[in-house]
Amino acid sequence: MEKRLQAQLLNKDELFAVLKKVEVNFQLADERSVETLLIYLPESGSPDSLNQFFSAVKSGIMANFVLKCSEIEKQLGIKKEGAAQKLFDKAIRKLSQHTAQGELGELILFTLLDVYLDAPKLLSKISTKTSRKMPVFGADGVHGQFYDGKFKLFLGESKLYKDFKSAATDAAKSIKMAEDKYQEEFDLIESDMDFPNLDEGLEQYLLEILDPLNNTSFDEHLHNSCFIGFAKPDLYLNKPEDFEEKYIDLAGDYIGDFYSKIEKQEVGIDKTVLMILPFNCIDDLVKKFINYMDIKA
User: Fold this and answer.
1) 206: number of Cβ within 10 Å
2) CA dihedral 178, 180, 184, 189 (to 10 degrees)
3) Which of 77, 158, 173, 280 is most exposed, with the fewest beta carbons within 10 Å of its own?
4) For 166, left (φ over 0), alpha (ψ -120 to 50), or beta?
5) Interval 137-153: pLDDT, tens
6) CA 154 to CA 161: how far, in whole Å?
7) This model's pTM is above 0.85
8) Domain ranges in the chain?
9) pLDDT at site 125
10) For residue 52, which phi and psi values (nearest 5 degrees)?
């Protein structure tokens, strides 16, 4: 039987409707294929798609993003009234207004990997924060996926910037740094790996193939995932029926820029997936996130 990791988020149909995917494949100028995911929030609908997404975040994504799976399963398994709210309240206490922009980017990265790539998180870094005002260092996410019988470990990077190309520059550097410091990530995996239905046999298998000291071919399993959210208000001025076409035209330039920067960092483009999502205004987005979730200072 083929190995498979179970996704954490169980409301995929709801999220597919809110975080819409553009069905398109991209090649670079030299005709090399790259793995990309173009996502957008539809403009039409009531309530609007951003509020629908924030509602989904509050009702389940936030707790799954921040807390350990074992903790969530234990709390919900008790079936005590108010358990879901208690989990959300505990999760939100790990966030602050000071770090909200970075953590919103990480939350979207987590969501897209789980929903669209069937790659659940392997460990929760935010749950180990001792101060809500301190960011998490190292990779922004550590996720896993079985594909064609082979395991992929995704070290995740997220950027939520006004300008895409500035974000791509910084993301490429961060991805290279995370690769170079993989031993530190493995130490965390070894100590804190935690995802739905993890059994002893699967845990041992993953630890053996991902151990850089005992498996000389561990880098075959090492991949990168990058989420970039950026401001592009002009894109949303297009008619709904023209939106995806204009988005694809814009994305072609951005995707080429990102992968050229990845190659300059000597990171394999064939082992890197790029996920992008345009917004009207990043500052406004972060303010709405803080207010909707009632994140404290």
Assistant:
1) 22
2) 60
3) 77
4) alpha
5) 678 999 999 888 889 99
6) 22
7) yes
8) 12-293
9) 81
10) -65, -40
